[in-house]
Amino acid sequence: MESSCSRREECGRTNKNGERHADAGRISRGASQQMIRDVRRVATCLAFGPRFLHSTGQAYKGGPNTGVFLQITCDDAIDLPVPGRKYTFGVVKAAQARGDFDVLVERDRRALRAHLGADVAGGLITLRVGLLAALGLDRLTAS
């Protein structure tokens, strides 16, 4: 059994010097993915969206109902207007994420959506605490 998806994507942002921005939650997400894999002994895949269901969704939306999905969303730190429209790219991204989630639910997939809000770092900590509790590890570790 494959232990982990090899696909890893960075956020693609750059700092003022043009250097790639380190995704602040990447280590936390990767650690959570490995924790779930190791405790539950299941294959895990981590994909950065909102395009994850567009590029790999056929495998998840069709076939046997064996997946468990956790969709994590957040508010955009900077939200830009779509040129010539009355909405922003953040609205488009949120609608796409919501649509992806709705498709999973319509197909009776086990899915949970966690919205982190504007404080992504704090939200990831809260989510990790919840994952530890759900896995029965909350009594074993505080990190």
What does this structure look like?
With 143 residues, the protein is mostly helical. 41% of the residues lie in helices and 8% in strands. The longest helix has 18 residues, at 89-106. Mean pLDDT is 76; it is low at 1-25.
Quaternary structure classification = single chain
Number of separate strands? 2
Cα end-to-end separation:
28 Å
Average of the residue pLDDT scores:
76
The main β sheet shows up as: 2 strands, parallel
Strand content: 5-15%
What is the helix fraction of residues, given as a range?
40-55%
* Assigned CATH superfamily: Glucose-6-phosphate isomerase like protein, domain 1
CATH class: Alpha Beta
CATH topology: Rossmann fold
Uncertain runs are 1-25
Question: What labels describe this entry?
Answer:
143 residues; mainly alpha; Rossmann fold; two-stranded parallel ribbon; 2 strands; disordered N terminus
